[in-house]
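Sample 1 of the test manifest.
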Amino acid sequence: MSELAAKAKELDASDRLAGLRARFVLDDAVYLDGNSLGALPTAVPGRMEDVVRRQWGSLRIRSWDESGWWTAPERIGDLIAPLVGAAPGQIVVGDSTSVNVFKALVAAVRMAGDGGGNGGDRGDDGSGRDEILVDATTFPTDGYIAASAARMTGCTLRPVAPADVPGALTGRTAAVLLNHVDYRTGRLHDLPGLTAAVHAAGAVAVWDLCHSAGALPVGLDEHGVDLAVGCTYKYLNGGPGSPAYLYVRRELQDRFDSPLPGWNSHAEPFGMRAEYQAAEGAVRGRVGTPDILSMLALEAALEVWDDVPVDAVRAKSLALTDFFLECVAAYVPAGTVESLTPEAHAERGSQVALRCPGAGDVMKRLIDSGVVGDFRPPDVLRFGFTPLYVGFADVERAARVLARTLS
Amino acid sequence: MSELAAKAKELDASDRLAGLRARFVLDDAVYLDGNSLGALPTAVPGRMEDVVRRQWGSLRIRSWDESGWWTAPERIGDLIAPLVGAAPGQIVVGDSTSVNVFKALVAAVRMAGDGGGNGGDRGDDGSGRDEILVDATTFPTDGYIAASAARMTGCTLRPVAPADVPGALTGRTAAVLLNHVDYRTGRLHDLPGLTAAVHAAGAVAVWDLCHSAGALPVGLDEHGVDLAVGCTYKYLNGGPGSPAYLYVRRELQDRFDSPLPGWNSHAEPFGMRAEYQAAEGAVRGRVGTPDILSMLALEAALEVWDDVPVDAVRAKSLALTDFFLECVAAYVPAGTVESLTPEAHAERGSQVALRCPGAGDVMKRLIDSGVVGDFRPPDVLRFGFTPLYVGFADVERAARVLARTLS
């Protein structure tokens, strides 16, 4: 056994989270793509069977009350809340991340312009705040949706590297949309510092947590984040395309003015009133009828977090990525790959991105050899480390297979 | 056996669609709430088990290609197409009805203002079209979302009874949002005539098919409808909160300018480009990652339509509602209930709405007696007749139990 294989064995033996792997359906592959689609939690198949056969098939319409379908968006939001450092009552689940980015960003611009003039949506509402800043290296959909939100609220959109945000903030800035962890490089951005800078400039901070929630502490309440969105199919293991979530800070809920005021966000949804009156609280972020099958699969999936401290998850995540970088340095000839992921723990999420020529083909061969990561154009191998089910022996094997594949 | 019970037996015996009931999981209750939540098709539980255990649990990320997850929205759209009279390539499935109403209505206003002035979204774009008409008795969410679409495009919103639309159309009308069948009364509106009137005024017609698709022929292509939306959990039996759909007429697809241009609608979604470029075709109506569990349950559910002609469904639907009205007239003392549903076949959907005092309590007692309809405030008993699984004996029994409950 090599030195690193022996070290992996030791690390696994002392890993207090190692037992959590049994909460997932896994096989012999090394699955390092949980940052794209989380593995199947063992609780899900049985729950889905009950939801389909009993709740839908037998109770049918009665399940909206009796099986708790109607309140699922806020109930499941409260299950996600502790994972992102939020007190209950501030998160609703539903719609896609893209749709939630739209809700959050339009609402943010409206909040920024609150006191202002003509009551319209335009930046010329008297507040003088008519610019949205967006992470220049964002996952594309955030940028596309931000452009639409800007267009529809009369704002201009300015892409800025996250580190340059403090210098780019002006009295014209209405809202800033940032990613907690960059989807490509795995860089962790300074959520507390950037949020404080946004607030100091009088603007509203919107964070996208897709690549951080479930892998590291977020601290939404603690750091005063205004609005946040995230998906649930990566580190939260909710299943393919499971619904996203929206966080609206409690103090801002009364000012949350949704661009998608569907009937589920009405104060009295079954009153069937022609006039819209927004519900109080996080429920105001709901839109239409929730997709119950996907939503209740997510609820079952979140059971894997029972008694799992997020700090322990973060510690293991850093240990995993540290060890991967160590194994890669040991096994892969120098100069063959270049890491895009920051060395500093404070700047690292739960993935490692390696740049190499022919990355698309390399990833195909890795997958054929039982090491599953993914490829992001033009030249990035992306490896996600889900602390709940990835172990250190997996990491050593992945680096070893990578070295063999590259040689 | 009473005369009507005997007639029911005869009608069931000669019903060529009677065998379709075996395609659903049903029990002894008379389920007349399929216009709210369709019953469970027998094909769904096994499919869901495969989707969860094999596609997600075993193939994991590979299923986006190998299990056809990525193309599900347009593939399932093409399954719905023949049910609403649309050629393939014009429907995508995803998001809620509310979200699709927003996409359709904003896109409609933009189409109406196409040639015009300043390139912005406002009604003052030079086209002079700055008004949206909406069905005054619409299901509330359509009205709420229409108000938001109006606000965000600089239009005014005017509620108008569908019959009054032709007289309300002016050169200022940008778009008209109408329901094919009224959710409360079951009234079927004149889709061909109203669409023609909207077009004659130079405006764009958007139809909500929630209460018609799957119960009667719609003829989207034939009647030149511009845009349409609908849910899939009523007569299409897709399951609780199953994803909605969006129809964009082929000739208008190049001009479909979505307010929710998520990465799934990009011409090259995996190119991860900072610049948005809309895909060609119906795919342009997609937004974020599709909710695969709900979506593939819907795909399995749509198998019940194999070899089922929509015209035969419509004929049975009218026979069912005719017979229900006949039984109610025979069993329920005159003056006890008042039907809100039109007598004329041309004006009737697939439900019967009866107004009566204490309707909420009456419905509770009906449900306790095994006849499941629903209550819509303030005083409406709503009975939906799904021709695929409701028979004439069910109808007779429902009227009989209703009479007993009311006496």
